[in-house]
Amino acid sequence: MAHGLLQSHNKKEDLEDIGMRYLKELLSRSFFQDLTFGMVGMETFYFKMHDLMHDLALLVNSDCQSIPKRVRHLSFAAANALRNDFSSLLSYLGRLRTIFFSTDDEKTSQSFVESCFSKSQFLRVLNLRESALEVCPRKMGNLKHMRYLDLSRNSKIKKLPKSICELQSLQTLDLEGCLELEELPKDIRYLVILRVFALTTKQKSLQESGIRSLGSLRCLTISGCRDLEHLFEEIEQLSLLRTLLIHSYDDRKNTRPRLRRVFIKEITQLLELPQWLLQCCTDTLHTLVIGDCPNFMALPGSLKDLEALETLAIRGCPKLSSLPEDMHHLTTLKLLAIGGCPALSERCKPPTGEDWPKIAHITQIELDDEIIKSSDI
User: Fold this and answer.
1) Where is the Disease resistance R13L4/SHOC-2-like LRR domain (predicted)?
2) pTM for the complete prediction?
3) Superfamily of domain 69-257, CATH level 4
4) What span, in angstroms and rounded, lies between the C-alpha atoms of 268 and 278?
5) What is the pLDDT of residues 234-267, one digit of tens each?
6) Of 22, 238, 254, 350, which has the fewest beta carbons less than 10 angstroms from its beta carbon?
7) Count of other CB atoms within 10 angstroms of residue 167
């Protein structure tokens, strides 16, 4: 995608779908082999180059100290290569379209990275994943043709230069695992054609981050944000979003999003809440609001595990007809509001409604705007 190789006669077809079609074609022709799948629900695959293709690649590539002028795609296989004197290569950097730096514990040469940014003005793909980079070059905004930028797992980066928001051609930005990143640049909203965005940040709130203005987003990943308490509103502006993934960066460290309030509104396709949404905040979530989801049918049984829940509001969900059996375990629940759910409201009416015993302990209950106090029953 970054190199403009995906073509289709159907202008309405998403580039991601075209790419998937290409991938399946290459697999069917044995160009790739040993296909394995990534995370469930994510269109992520791992595969190897066919043995014969690999042998051919070895023939046309060599361990060299000079770059032929015709080369457009460059990968440094090891960090120690970056400590060599590559001053003779700098004059050829202007022709490069791709640079992959090594994945290594050793520190990548900051000066060489700076040179790449200043001289590779036609660069489209730059992978600095796990390169031990500490400071991003300020001249990043000069790379006007950049489509794919991977800065993931650079745990020492604290700030991004403002110029990153000048990359108007950027389609993919990966900041996952940048554990010390203090905040996103204020003008991130100007990356209007960004399709894939993965981030880790120390921010407590993403409300003012500008993410909601990224109307071309297809995939948004928020991971390892240990201090995150508030996402952002108006997610409906991300009308092309296909995948939203929120998870801890390293489960072994027992880090989880500490969500306190979750509002879900006007999602026509929503049938039930995903289990992970409640499992990640069992001891912090105190407000859950579900509104105007006409096909929403069931609350999960794990609702009983929300030991801090104080407010539960459900409105405009006509297909929701009953409450989970263990609702009486929600001893912290102080307010239950139900409206626009005819069948559910009928089951919750005191004292004969079938679901009334499940909720009789709640201090205040609102059924279709009628306030009912359990102490009065």
Assistant:
1) 117-251
2) 0.67
3) Ribonuclease Inhibitor (3.80.10.10)
4) 20
5) 777 888 888 788 877 557 444 455 678 888 888 8
6) 254
7) 22
